[in-house]
Amino acid sequence: MRDHIHTALRDGGLDAEPVLRLACLLEEQGVSTATTRELLERPTAELTAADLTRLGSGLLRDTGPGPGFVFEPGPWTLLEQALKIVERDVRAAGITGTLRLTTDDQDGSGHARVEFQGGYQGNGIPPHAASHPQEALACVADATQEVIMELTWSVWPTCPTHDRGLHAELEHGRAVWRCTPGDPHTVAPIGEMP
After folding, report:
1. 82, 40 Cβ separation under 8 angstroms
2. CA distances, 33 to each of 5, 22, 26, 64, 72 (Å)
3. Model pTM greater than 0.85?
4. Fewest beta carbons less than 10 Å away: which of 68, 93, 116, 120?
5. Contact 189/157 with Cβ under 8 angstroms?
6. How is 163-175 classified by DSSP, letter by letter?
7. Residue ranges per structural domain of the chain
């Protein structure tokens, strides 16, 4: 829910429904703030777009960033850019299906996740991954690899020489796909698979 509010605030077009749902949820959990009270006391029809932006931002601020980063625009944008780069390798392999960045608030980790064809797997992308573009790229590539392999039951990406699975790693500060067993070597920078 917070992810939806954050995305709508960033992209524009925040609706009253998710803001009111989060305010209700917070009140039910005993988290009563000036923002939640205003949302629940004012008639929904009176809430303007400016009110929703102010109150939605207030809810995100009131609930705090938690252990995650996904509600802050800068790091989230960095992860979205990394996913676009990784997606080039996915498409180069002929893999189709929707990829998107999401978060799962249920575990309270604030970790981002890569969703593929409506599903996601694994531990997600930790908040520290968004501290550097190349680290973000390697973490997003790893999460993308994990979800694609789990949902397609096939290895991706593979080394064109050895036909083995590759690993996303940082090599001299650059995110690359590496073939590690036997004769370790770099196959390509992430986003540049043949």
Report:
1. no
2. 17, 12, 9, 12, 21
3. no
4. 93
5. no
6. --B-EEEEETTEE
7. 2-63, 73-189
